[in-house]
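Input record, target 12 of the design panel.
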C-alpha cells in the first residue's frame, strides 16, 4: 500500500500554564530507584490488555532539570533530518482536548451508532486548513478498531465523499493513525477492498483500558522503542522527557490521549515489560536510562522497526546504515 506523506493533521498542543506548573513540579522531584529494572518480573502479563492505574504505581517519576533540558536541546532526535524524521510532524498532528464535532455524521453499521458518540471528535488546526472529513475518518477508524470490525473502502469513501480527494485524505489519516495511535490498516480482502486495523510492529498492547479508555496508546510506545533502538539500545531518561516535551507531551500534565504520560510510561509500559528503566551504572548523582524490555523481542524485531521508519519517510531501509546491518544480523540469527 503506497501513500504519499503529508505533514499536516492534528496539533499536539499542551496548555502553557500546565507546562509551567509541570516544569516547576519536575524541577523539585527526585529520582526513585524503586522504578529500576529490578521491578520487572520474568514472565509477561497474562493479557495484552492488562493495564495499571496510577494508584498501582507508587514510585516518584524522574525529574528533568532546566539545565538538562538545555543539554539535550542540541541534536534533537526528532528533527526532520534525523532517522525519526517522520515523528518531527507529531507536534503538528494532534491538538487540544477531545471535543465534539458538530460536523461528524459517520454512522456505524451496528444499529446506526454515530462513531463520534463513541469516540469524541478532534479539533483540527491550524484554522483554514482543517477538514472535517479527516476528523470523521479518524473517528470511524478508531470506532472500527474498538469494535474489532473491518472497514471497507466504501465506508471510507462515504466519509470522504469526493473520490478526487480520496488519496490525499486517506494518506493523511493513515499516517496519523500510525504515528499518534500506533494503528495501521492491513488489506485483508483485496476483492472487497476491506481493511483490518491492527497495532503496528506486531505489538499486542494498545493501552485501551488505561486512564483514557477506548483510545489506543501504542503510538507513544512505538516512538519510545524506535528512539531506543536508533540510539544504540539505551537512552538517558532526561533525553526521553525532553523529546516528549518538544512534542507537546508533558509529564505530570494531563494529555487527552495519554492522560499522564509519566504514569503511562513508568507504569503500564514497564509493567507490561516493553521498557526497562534502570540507574545508569556508576552515575553519581544517580541518573536513569530506558532500554527495551523482554517483551519487545518476543513480539517484534529490529528489522520491523527499520522497515516501519523507512515506510514513514519513504526511504530505503539500507539508508539506516549500521542499524540496518544490526537488524539484518538479528534476522539471520533468528533463521539459524
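The sequence produced for target 12 reads:
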Amino acid at each position: 500500500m503506497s501513500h504519499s506523506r503529508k505533514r499536516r493533521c492534528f496539533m499536539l498542543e499542551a496548555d502553557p500554564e500546565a507546562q509551567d506548573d509541570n516544569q516547576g513540579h519536575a524541577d523539585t522531584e527526585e529520582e526513585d530507584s524503586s522504578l529500576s529494572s529490578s521491578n520487572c518480573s520474568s514472565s509477561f502479563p497474562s493479557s495484552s490488555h492488562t493495564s495499571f492505574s496510577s494508584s498501582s504505581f507508587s514510585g516518584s517519576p524522574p525529574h528533568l532539570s532546566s539545565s538538562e533540558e538545555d543539554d539535550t536541546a542540541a541534536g534533537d532526535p526528532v528533527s526532520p533530518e534525523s532517522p525519526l524524521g517522520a515523528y518531527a510532524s507529531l507536534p503538528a498532528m494532534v491538538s487540544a482536548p477531545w471535543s465534539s464535532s458538530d460536523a461528524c455524521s459517520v454512522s456505524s453499521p451496528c444499529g446506526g451508532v454515530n462513531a463520534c458518540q463513541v469516540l469524541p471528535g478532534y479539533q483540527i488546526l491550524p484554522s483554514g486548513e482543517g477538514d472535517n472529513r479527516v476528523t470523521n475518518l479518524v473517528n470511524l477508524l478508531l470506532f472500527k478498531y474498538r469494535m474489532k470490525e473491518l472497514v471497507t473502502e466504501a465506508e471510507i469513501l462515504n466519509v470522504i465523499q469526493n473520490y478526487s480527494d480520496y488519496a490525499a485524505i486517506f494518506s493523511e489519516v493513515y499516517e496519523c493513525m500510525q504515528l499518534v495511535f500506533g494503528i495501521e490498516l492491513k488489506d485483508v480482502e483485496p476483492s472487497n477492498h476491506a481493511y483490518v486495523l491492527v497495532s503496528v510492529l506486531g505489538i499486542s498492547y494498545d493501552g485501551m483500558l488505561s486512564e483514557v479508555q477506548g483510545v489506543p496508546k501504542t503510538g507513544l510506545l512505538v516512538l519510545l522503542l524506535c528512539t531506543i533502538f536508533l540510539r544504540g539500545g539505551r537512552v538517558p531518561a532526561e533525553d526521553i522527557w525532553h523529546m516528549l516535551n518538544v512534542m507537546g507531551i508533558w509529564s505530570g500534565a494531563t494529555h487527552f490521549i495519554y492522560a499522564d504520560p509519566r504514569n503511562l510510561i513508568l507504569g503500564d509500559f514497564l509493567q507490561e515489560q516493553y521498557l526497562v528503566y534502570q540507574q545508569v551504572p556508576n552515575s553519581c548523582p544517580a541518573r536513569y536510562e530506558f532500554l527495551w524490555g523482554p517483551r519487545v523481542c518476543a513480539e517484534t524485531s529490529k528489522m520491523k522497526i527499520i522497515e516501519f521508519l523507512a515506510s514513514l519517510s519513504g526511504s530505503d531501509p539500507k539508508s539506516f546504515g549500521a542499524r540496518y546491518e544490526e537488524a539484518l544480523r538479528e534476522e539471520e540469527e533468528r533463521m539459524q
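Residues 1-31, 37-75, 94-129 have pLDDT under 50 and may be disordered.
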